[in-house]
């Protein structure tokens, strides 16, 4: 059957409803949601708060009635004006620029998934939600960002349970016509159709849908069109479905098609091309290859010159702390899609040699193409997503910078954040607007001032939100049982599931093994006792989807469901199927405690706990990801980790035991210890401290400002320097890299002399070093020579090092002379050495080329 959606014809007086429903800003703007609800409250609830569907299905007579309703029309006009003001007013970004900050003129942000709202279900989990929050915060701050991704015919799957608790998957098809999207059109109003060459002379075509996320456009490529053959139509069928071959086609479309979509969009809107390209994870890495091709064929650059220009303006964010989490393809598959039949020029990327493309994703195993390695080779700036993940990433990718310590690997970190207007309950947002003012709230600032709110009001808000969650839990438990085959008559008990006054713990996330969904079940009797304690019970809400191909994950879900199905505990523990944004919201609002027990350090950041914290939920978590840097001893609890224990079962035992103990000895007593007015004073103090200490740090606006200032602005400047004067900078860098690579085998530290040290030196004692260096034909300005001092180990390796630049002091027979006067940085066994690195002002770090020369041992 062919299905399509017919949009309603709005009365002229109500035409602004079209604009309000298609700009997704409504999804984080409660007054606009209220207006839609007013149209038809029953239908609004039934359609799960989807304005576009609502306008399609509401009775035309009702619209005519509203057009004549002066109160409704006045509110509509007010909200339209409010949206216009939101879209036009200069914001933080424009104010920074007005104050002289040299910021990028535009940023293209690529991601394979975007979770903006549940009515556009184009995400599977954390990565997509993060991308959605990034766009929203960028919009609030006025950052000139363009989002780029794919539109999947059926998004991610919807989850239900079978009678025996096994996960079942459904893939409801989406009709783009029924979504808040418009087609990108070109000259003459015809839809833009992108072309990407496929092997065997085939062509993959895609149209481009544009979603408006406040001020930010989101371009979504769609291959499901009649112009494609059936196989290619299916490229954008599902998110994370299919085999490697399917997957590489999706990534080719997202990366290469994505750049072409950006060009078509900016042309059609008369905008400048973005200066910076940001890869949110390596999936869209082929965007860099397309940009190299543009420069090679359009500007006549050599591959290496184009690479230098692309690198300068590319930011790469990695999200996984484990090699197994990285996207890798067989090299042969890459050659199949990029290669030509015969010659060595790429058919997909005319003007480029296939070998050069393959080289970008090289790893130790020559048969594998590694998308993260490509990200690092194409992006001069790279980051992990929490401080701990930065450390883990530097270790994980150390191999790309041989000769450098992990600490020197040029990968930084930006800790993720969450969009407050999306995730904080309306009750908190209203309180925040009253307490700190609407403007600051819009930009995600001033959150810490919530600390002034009286305890009784804080507690009352928490209680209201817990009550809403309890209602939602009852509704969903009932619906789930009906789906599992129960009848109404058996389900009377679901009306009493959960208790609005009982401590409510939430655990919801995807179900890969490392997140340990079932850790809480490690000692089932101990959990049962906690749930059923007559005076101080706990209630536990659990949710999460397992990847469809992961039967192990499904077995974990089944284990939880079976436990929760037992008659004696089913009023205190529930598994809610189909975790998505619409459910998540209730969980973050209403849970008193947010539980997270991953295997450290496998959680790159995690964001659900941040959303809970924004609502005054207290985190009870392993010190992993964001919690490792933001736990301060009083804003929640850290579950002690048995980091060194290699026996996994034993580690689980230890950590589960620690979890139960924390609940029994600290969490529960604090929650149930009430004053004369029934307020848990010590609990509320922790809530207050959480809002104050975490509020400002967990916000996506903080994250986006970090990206703007520390990543996009430098990448914009580096990109500009590379392309200025007919790409003089890019040519210089390419020449420089070729020169140093050729010269490097001859670069040598031939001798190091020290003087000034007494026989028994003390810490801080003066040390003069003089090094003789052969530069293999390089100029002294083309290198940095450094003294490296640190603790010396049994194998003569240096740790805890301090590096001190040395000055060039002429040339002698032995070589170029470098000197420095410094002090001994520490006591104990100290050693020093001297090393040489290439240096160029257009590189972001001297470690970037991965070349270093030290004295021969
Ligand atoms: C926030 C969120 C996630 C990510 O949570 P993690 O803590 O990173 O696991 C996943 N799904 C939904 C629906 C979310 O809202």
From TrEMBL:
Domain DUF3417: 10-120
The enzyme's E.C. designation: 2.4.1.1
UniProt family annotation: Belongs to the glycogen phosphorylase family.
Keywords: Allosteric enzyme, Carbohydrate metabolism, Glycosyltransferase, Pyridoxal phosphate, Transferase
Reactions accelerated catalytically: [(1->4)-alpha-D-glucosyl](n) + phosphate = [(1->4)-alpha-D-glucosyl](n-1) + alpha-D-glucose 1-phosphate
Gene3D superfamilies found in the cross-reference section: Glycogen Phosphorylase B
Protein name: glycogen phosphorylase
Lineage of producing organism: Bacteria, Bacillati, Actinomycetota, Actinomycetes, Mycobacteriales
InterPro entries per the UniProt record, alphabetical: Agluc_phsphrylas, Glyco_trans_35, Glycogen/Maltodextrin_Phosph, Glycogen_phosphorylase_DUF3417, Pyridoxal_P_attach_site
UniProt superkingdom: Bacteria
Cofactors demanded by this protein: pyridoxal 5'-phosphate
């Amino acid at each position: 059957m062919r299905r399509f959606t017919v949009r309603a014809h709005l009365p002229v007086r109500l035409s602004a409803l079209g604009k309000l429903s298609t700009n997704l800003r409504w999804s984080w703007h409660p007054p606009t949601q209220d207006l839609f609800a007013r149209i038809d409250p029953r239908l609004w609830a039934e359609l799960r708060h989807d304005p576009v569907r609502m306008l399609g299905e509401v009775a035309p007579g009702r619209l005519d009635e509203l057009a004549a309703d002066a109160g409704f029309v006045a509110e509509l006009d007010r909200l339209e004006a409010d949206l216009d003001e939101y879209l036009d007013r200069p914001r933080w970004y424009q104010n920074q620029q007005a104050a002289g900050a040299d910021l990028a003129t535009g940023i293209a942000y690529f991601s394979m998934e975007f979770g903006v709202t549940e009515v556009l279900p184009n995400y599977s989990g954390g990565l997509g939600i993060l991308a959605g929050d990034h766009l929203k915060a960028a919009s609030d701050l006025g950052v000139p960002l363009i989002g780029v991704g794919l539109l999947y015919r059926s998004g991610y799957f919807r989850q239900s349970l079978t009678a025996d608790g096994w996960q079942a998957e459904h893939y409801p098809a989406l009709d783009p016509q029924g979504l808040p999207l418009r087609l990108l059109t070109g000259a003459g109003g015809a839809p833009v159709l992108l072309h990407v060459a496929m092997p065997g002379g085939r062509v993959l075509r895609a149209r481009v849908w544009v979603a408006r996320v406040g001020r930010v456009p989101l371009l979504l490529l769609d291959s499901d069109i009649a112009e494609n053959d059936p196989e290619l139509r299916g490229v954008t069928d599902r998110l994370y479905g299919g085999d490697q071959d399917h997957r590489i086609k999706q990534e080719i479309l997202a990366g290469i098609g994505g750049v072409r979509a950006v060009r078509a969009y900016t042309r059609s809107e008369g905008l400048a091309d973005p200066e910076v390209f940001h890869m949110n994870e390596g999936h869209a890495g082929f965007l860099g290859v397309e940009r190299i091709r543009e420069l090679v064929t359009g500007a006549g650059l050599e591959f290496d010159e184009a690479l230098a220009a692309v690198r300068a303006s590319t930011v790469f964010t990695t999200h996984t702390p484990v090699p197994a989490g990285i996207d890798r393809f067989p090299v042969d598959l890459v050659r199949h899609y990029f290669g030509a039949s015969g010659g060595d020029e790429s058919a997909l990327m005319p003007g480029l040699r296939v070998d050069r493309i393959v080289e970008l994703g090289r790893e130790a195993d020559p048969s594998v193409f590694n998308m993260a390695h490509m990200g690092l080779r194409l992006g001069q700036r790279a980051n992990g997503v929490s401080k701990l993940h930065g450390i883990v990433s530097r270790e994980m990718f150390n191999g790309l910078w041989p000769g450098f310590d992990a600490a020197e690997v040029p990968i930084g970190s930006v800790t993720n954040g969450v969009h407050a207007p999306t995730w904080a309950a309306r009750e908190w947002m209203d309180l925040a607007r009253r307490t700190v003012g609407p403007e600051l709230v819009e930009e995600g600032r001033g959150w810490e001032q919530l600390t002034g709110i009286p305890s009784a009001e804080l507690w009352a808000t928490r209680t209201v939100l817990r009550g809403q969650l309890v209602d939602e839990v009852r509704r969903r438990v009932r619906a789930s049982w009906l789906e599992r085959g129960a009848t109404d008559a058996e389900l009377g008990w679901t009306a009493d599931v959960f208790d609005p006054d009982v401590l409510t713990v939430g655990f919801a996330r995807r179900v890969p093994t490392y997140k340990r969904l079932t850790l809480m079940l490690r000692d089932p009797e101990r959990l049962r006792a906690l749930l059923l304690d007559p005076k101080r019970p706990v209630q536990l809400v659990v949710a999460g989807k397992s990847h469809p191909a992961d039967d192990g994950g499904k077995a974990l879900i089944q284990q939880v469901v079976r436990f929760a199905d037992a008659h004696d505990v089913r009023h205190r523990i529930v598994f809610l199927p189909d975790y998505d944004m619409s459910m998540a919201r209730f969980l973050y609002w209403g849970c008193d405690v947010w539980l997270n027990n991953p295997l450290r350090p496998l959680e790159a950041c995690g964001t659900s706990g941040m959303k809970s914290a924004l609502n005054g939920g207290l985190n009870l978590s392993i010190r992993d990801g964001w919690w490792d840097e933001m736990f301060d001893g009083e804003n929640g609890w850290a579950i002690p980790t048995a980091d060194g224990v290699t026996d996994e079962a034993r580690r689980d035992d230890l950590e589960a035991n620690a979890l139960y103990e924390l609940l029994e000895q600290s969490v529960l007593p604090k929650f149930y210890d009430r004053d004369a007015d029934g307020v848990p004073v010590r609990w509320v103090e922790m809530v207050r401290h959480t809002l104050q200490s975490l509020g400002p740090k967990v916000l996506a606006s903080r994250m986006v400002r970090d990206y703007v200032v520390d990543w996009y602005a430098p990448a914009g400047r580096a990109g500009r320097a590379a392309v200025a004067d007919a790409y003089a900078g890019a040519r210089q860098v390419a020449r420089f890299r070729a020169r140093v690579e050729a010269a490097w085998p001859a670069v040598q530290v031939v001798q190091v002399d020290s003087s000034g040290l007494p026989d028994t030196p003390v810490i801080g004692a003066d040390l003069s070093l003089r090094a003789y260096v052969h530069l293999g034909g390089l100029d002294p300005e083309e290198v940095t020579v450094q003294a490296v001092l640190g603790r010396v180990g049994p194998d003569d390796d240096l740790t805890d090092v301090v590096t001190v630049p040395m000055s060039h002091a002429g040339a002698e027979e032995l070589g170029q002379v470098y000197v420095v006067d410094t002090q001994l940085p520490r006591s104990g066994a100290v050693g020093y050495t001297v090393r040489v690195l290439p240096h160029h002002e257009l590189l972001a770090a001297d470690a970037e080329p991965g070349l270093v020369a030290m004295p021969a041992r």
